[in-house]
Amino acid sequence: MKEFKAESKRLLDLMINSIYTNKEIFLRELISNSSDAIDKLHYESLTNDKINMQEPKIKIEIDKEKRILKISDNGCGMTSEELENNLGTIAKSGSLSFKEEKLKNNENAKEDIDIIGQFGVGFYSAFMVSDSITVYSKSYKSEKSYSWTSKGAEGYTIEECDKKEIGTSIELQIKEDTEDENYSQYLDTYTIQNLVKKYSDYIRYPIQMEVEHSKLKEGTKEEYETVKEIETLNSMIPLWKKKKSEINEEEYNSFYLGKFNDYEKPQKVMHVSVEGQYSYNALLYIPTHVPFDYYSPEYEKGLQLYSNGVLIMEKCADLLPDYFAFVKGLVDSPDLSLNISREMLQQDRQLKTIAKSIEKKILNELQNMMKNQREEYEKFFKNFGSQLKYGTYNDFGINKEKLQDLLLFYSSKEQKSVSLKEYTEKMQEEQEKIYYACGETNDKIDLLPQVQLVKDKGFEILYLTENLDEFVLKTITEYDKKQFINVCADELNLDTEEEKKELEKVNEENKEMFEEMKKAISDEVQSIRFTHKLKNHPVCLTSEGGISIGMEKIINAMPNDQKVKAQTILEINENHPIANTLKKLFETDKEKLKNYTKILYSQARLIEGLSIENPTEISNLICEFIANNE
Ligand code: ADP
Q: What global pTM score does this model have?
């Protein structure tokens, strides 16, 4: 007997002792696997003459006495190595750590089990209803056939067996009933018929089972007899080819859960049917949560691609732009050639047209959601908003027109997220620019001196808390002919001409003092000057030119050698008592003036959320100051 790998063992334990109420999904999982296996064999047969495809079929058999439920397919089968690798371990190693993360965050045992259906645990779900499982399999690649048996967590054995036909048979030894659980129902023809209808109706291959019927005996008018007939239980119409009016939400959701290995129903379903030069059907889903591997390099975007119901590619990346990488789903087009290669697909005009049409569909759907289901949209934006921002910023903003109206930013006035359109529609007449401010959190931004000033004038400010935000706005450059302006920028122009003149005069008068002060912080700032824009605050730091202080922080935090520096200006509130102190010191004690300048500059940096390069020196200066003022 071989032991399961540690991860698989844990998962099996969970499955066997599961209190998961939805145990019946095991049938859907096994049937999906069978259907995939037939797909695979078919796909292989396109390029391998030796494969002699039989008529594809999935068979269900029930032996009530022995309590055995058997599911067989004539798909690709598994070699002994594949049995070992596919059923002895959980291939997708991320899934368990993800689950454990969930367990930690969640005391509720019932929700823990929601990971069932998570990538790679499909087959194991059969242990929820079985005492033991035997898999008989013959691969198209192998002369020999093998069986795999397991009673659960202890381990499994693999032996040679005498299965003749290519394919796989899975025998479940169904558990005895308990007080809480009726396992015998899975040996009941009627229940199985219903479960197939409920979960697997769309499977393209016939799912067949022997069903008993009561029939009029031949030659009689009243005598009935019971006959057994093989029946196909599923309609075999792929879900995406059915009319929308014939599909209910449950079917859409259940299809998604089974097909895309999620444990939570999707936030949004889009069912698209396009007739025209190129016809296609598509089922597109937006997940309710960020996939656990979304930000890892393993995450692959793409849609399943079918040609008239036959799978031709598992993940066709060309069908989705990067900024919609979160969308899961499939596309079926009757016009695509069956054995088209990947390289050819990329060139395919038809595929490009379909991709464009899909992109438009998703865009529309998101716009509608923003308009009509705001709360839902905000949830979506929390999950995938960054992706849309990247899309706006990437490739020098080539897609900004498409995406800018889907973005949300926190508004100082509304105290919730607003779109750029909502912002500009409410702008006051005299307001010429769109104000924004950057910082770590909304609360911190709210405390910036410059923010206070703009708020006092009655203007709305967008608070940017994500690293990318300011770069995104710089890429958009203007919206509705209004430019964006950082409230911490030097050119923030809120003064009247008169005020400006007065300030210029004051600054001119004190020019020499500022030059003296600048010696203390030498290259650190572009210039030093008085300002009237700070109400009670003594100092602030503003920036000039294309790189803001926030951008400097972000660019320099990135792992490359390119360091940038924002051109900064130290502004001192002329109406603050400190201004007079400085003026006096310029006459009496230049050394002290320089030391105070260092302190003021450090303060301005700290307010901006920047670090100071010489904290010890500053600390000493402040202590000296305190000591002298005792
Ligand atoms: P998933 O289907 O999500 O990959 P499963 O645990 O359900 O995870 O199955 C693991 C693997 O076992 C499958 O990916 C497939 O390679 C193989 N497998 C399962 N059932 C069959 C089958 N009926 N025929 C061939 N291979 C199968």
A: 0.69
